[in-house]
Design brief:
The protein is α/β, with parallel strands linked by helices and 393 residues long. It has four domains: 46 residues, no CATH class; 151 residues, P-loop containing nucleotide triphosphate hydrolases (Rossmann fold), CATH 3.40.50.300; 69 residues, Helicase, Ruva Protein, domain 3 (Orthogonal Bundle); 78 residues, Winged helix-like DNA-binding domain superfamily/Winged helix DNA-binding domain (Arc Repressor Mutant, subunit A, Orthogonal Bundle), CATH 1.10.10.10. The protein is 44% helix and 14% strand. It contains 16 helices and twelve strands. Strands 3-5-6-9-4-10 form a six-stranded mixed beta sheet, covered by helices on one side. A four-stranded mixed beta sheet has the order 1-8-7-2. Strands 11-12 form a two-stranded antiparallel sheet. Helix 8 packs across helix 10 and helix 10 crosses helix 11. The longest helix has 18 residues. It binds adenine. The site of adenine has 13 residues, from helix 8 and helix 10.
């Protein structure tokens, strides 16, 4: 029996047997302090959007610095022109109506600004933001605990939303569509269900794998936008802005050199900038120039195109081990002893974008550019044929 319950009732019952949760009863996390989510008021200074599950975090200092470098307003945000423009319109319209912004799904490779945009939406709307990630929400109760604490208009940010367990995802459907959840108490013939109303909120989902989101969930986002790699010009602007915020002197050649090695990704540009700043302080007079950047990044294992040791090993595996491909990702991962997820999220997107590999129905192939870049000759058709004969591998 479904009975309309008050929000208070729902919260009071959270310690009981919440269902359907195959893992059994689940206690809601303390919003704002628990590991499953972090809450902050947009613009309160204490940004809560940093993932705490070993996903992003480096040193506390670096995290704070990263947050300081993040743009807080749409007007400060560099790049993603159309995405920023359409979010700006959605925000302005919602404000005029006194409404929450429609649910937003942001997808694209890591480091392009999905989390930053979620925080900006909250800041521009002058509402709070609660942040969590798909894998942190293990049970329905984890989600309900957060949803029932949301205030009117709040932004609820779920990073890696494609990793949301299916049972949790099912709770989300009615929450985002009707701003209500059904909570079931007890089991079997004693089961009772309460429908609890929620405040109207904005769900912002972020994912590196849009393809892994189920269509019922995807369809519930009114705004769906892909973030793309940044251009050189945009990256140069990011580096100049960050250098100014960090008060690091950098000449124009230094800016270009850092941007060139940043794989189209502002997070990498900022990380590189910090490493080069340290190097310039310790080994030079503190000024970032092209030669200083080149020296510093050689030490960091980042080459002139921004390729890392892992990128190069990936390409060498395809070219040397698998004669240029096509080869399946699992086979490459096995040789490299890496998780396929790491390769899909962190390595492949830039190699594809920069034209070093191709993704074909039969697997990954190294391009002429990759062969030329690594100075490795292409395997001839004859050699390739021979390698398939018994005893040739
Ligand atoms: N820092 C990191 N990403 C940025 C962006 N998109 N715009 C401005 N500064 C940034």
């Amino acid at each position: 029996m479904a009975r309309e319950g008050t929000k208070k009732q729902a919260q009071a019952g959270q310690g009981d047997a919440l269902q359907p949760t195959p893992g059994g009863p689940s206690k809601p996390p303390k919003v704002g302090t628990g590991p499953a989510s972090e809450r902050c008021r947009a613009g309160s200074g204490g940004e809560g959007g940093v993932k705490g599950q070993g996903l992003l975090i480096k040193g506390k200092e670096e995290v704070e610095e990263a947050l300081n470098l993040r743009p807080r307003r749409l007007a400060e945000y560099i790049g993603q022109g159309q995405v920023v423009e359409s979010l700006g319109i959605a925000i302005e319209a919602a404000k005029k109506r006194g409404d929450a912004v429609d649910h937003v799904l942001l997808y694209g490779p890591p480091g392009l600004g999905k989390t930053t945009l979620a925080h900006i939406i909250a800041k521009e709307m002058d509402v709070g933001i609660v942040t969590t990630s798909g894998p942190a929400l293990e049970k329905g109760g984890d989600l309900i605990g957060i949803l029932t604490h949301l205030k009117k208009g709040d932004v609820f940010f779920i990073d890696e939303i494609h990793r949301l367990p299916r049972t949790v995802e099912e709770y989300l459907y009615s929450a985002v569509e009707d701003f209500a959840i059904s909570i079931v108490f007890d089991k079997g013939s004693h089961a009772r269900s309460y429908r609890s109303r929620l405040e109207k909120f904005t769900l912002v989902g972020a994912t590196t794998r849009a393809g892994l989101i189920s269509s019922p969930l995807r369809e519930r986002f009114g705004i769906q936008r892909a973030l793309d790699f940044y251009t050189m010009e945009e990256l140069c602007r990011v580096v100049r802005r960050s250098a100014a915020l960090l008060q690091v002197p950098v000449d124009e050649e230094g800016v270009v050199e850092i941007a060139r090695r940043s794989r189209g990704t502002p997070r990498i540009a900022n990380r590189i900038l910090r490493r080069v700043r340290d190097y310039a302080q310790v080994r030079h007079a503190g000024v970032i120039t092209r030669p200083v950047t080149q020296e510093a990044l050689e030490l960091e294992g980042i080459d002139g195109e921004g390729l890392t040791t892992l990128d190069k090993k990936f390409l060498e595996t395809v070219i040397i081990h698998y004669k240029g491909g096509p080869v399946g990702l699992e086979a490459i991962a096995a040789v490299l002893q890496e998780e396929t997820d790491t390769l899909v999220d962190m390595v492949e997107p830039f190699l594809l974008k920069a034209g070093f590999i191709l993704r074909t129905p039969k697997g990954r192939k190294a391009t002429d550019k990759a062969h030329g870049y690594l100075g490795l000759p292409k395997t001839s058709a004859e050699e390739r044929q021979l390698s398939f004969l018994p005893g040739q591998r």
